[in-house]
Amino acid sequence: MQGIRWLAISLSQDKNQVFLRRYDTADLGTPEYLDLYEFGPLDPNLAQEDADEFFEFNDFSELWSAMEHRFPGSTALLLNQGVIQDEYKSYKANSEA
Questions:
Q1: Which of 75, 94, 85, 74 is nearest to 29 (CA)?
Q2: pLDDT band at 97 (very low <50, low <70, confident <90, very high)
């Protein structure tokens, strides 16, 4: 099964740490169904909301450096939460053309 890899960045509640989560999500999308958050993991051992990898950083500069090292080019593709469906829709349209 094909998948979509995406990253999520968040702050700890006390805002002293930054978290990065990597998800490998099943590519189950259709023109009517674009909610990557609901597609579920590729790894059958993970629960719906579980990340494939979880990283903790002391600040954004540390996170930024780690992202560029581990996922080259990813910092140029950052989106606000809730916009990923629009990007996924464009990806699907371009991949099916």
A1: 85
A2: low
pLDDT digits (tens, 9 = 90+) for 40-68: 899 999 999 999 999 999 999 999 999 99
CA gap 53, 23 in Å, rounded: 7
Which range marks the domain in which residue 49 is found?
Answer: 3-96
Alpha-helical regions (H) of 33-83: 36-39, 60-70
Which tokens belong to 22?
Answer: 């990597």
The domain total for the chain is 1
Contact 8, 25 (CB under 8 A): no
